[in-house]
Specification:
The chain has 173 residues and is mostly helical. Helix content is 73%, strand content 0%.
């Protein structure tokens, strides 16, 4: 006879929910579908960078919206640990398929550092999306392309807003 699974704490459930949201690609597909074909962009770069930005935006939102303390620390740790585990699996699969060693979590850390540095260079920006959008476009290979700028800004804004709504709904914010 199997033991019934012990109930999950709110923070365990929240960590899982946020992880699942971060890796869901529905909004990535929507943004890619709505990028004009005439845009002067590297579509594969945009499609690669959007999920990275989404994962980073969820983690950034936890730091931004949660008050300091044990709940923030525990939820952030659960989230980033799940992302780290996911990254290891993805890195292993990619290496088996391509023969190239890739550390997906390291790439996420580099992108996070890049976006944080961009935000620090513009401390007076009223909306972080106005900094993230151009940085996203630059990372995708065309800093001047408005469509790439907007795709990055939309991903960032939508993700941050969804995390904020979620945290409010579960009464963590």
């Amino acid at each position: 006879m199997e033991k019934p699974e012990k109930p999950r704490s709110n923070l365990e459930q929240a960590g899982e929910d946020l992880f699942n949201y971060a890796i869901d690609r529905e909004d990535v597909h929507w943004l890619m579908t709505n990028l004009p074909q005439s845009a002067d962009i590297k579509r594969t770069a945009v499609e690669y960078e959007l999920p990275l930005l989404k994962i980073i935006s969820v983690g950034w939102s936890l730091s931004y919206y949660l008050p300091g303390g044990p709940q923030k620390d525990e939820l952030s740790e659960r989230y980033w640990q799940a992302i780290n585990d996911f990254s290891k699996d993805l890195s292993t699969t990619t290496e088996m398929m391509t023969g190239q060693k890739i550390d997906y979590f390291e790439i996420l850390k580099q992108r996070l550092d890049m976006y944080v540095a961009a935000l620090q260079q513009h401390p007076d920006a009223k909306d972080p999306a106005t900094v993230i959008g151009p940085e996203f476009a630059r990372t995708c290979g065309n800093a001047d392309d408005i469509f790439t700028f907007m795709a990055g800004s939309k991903m960032f804004m939508a993700t941050v807003n969804r995390v904020k709504e979620y945290l409010e709904a579960i009464k963590l914010r």
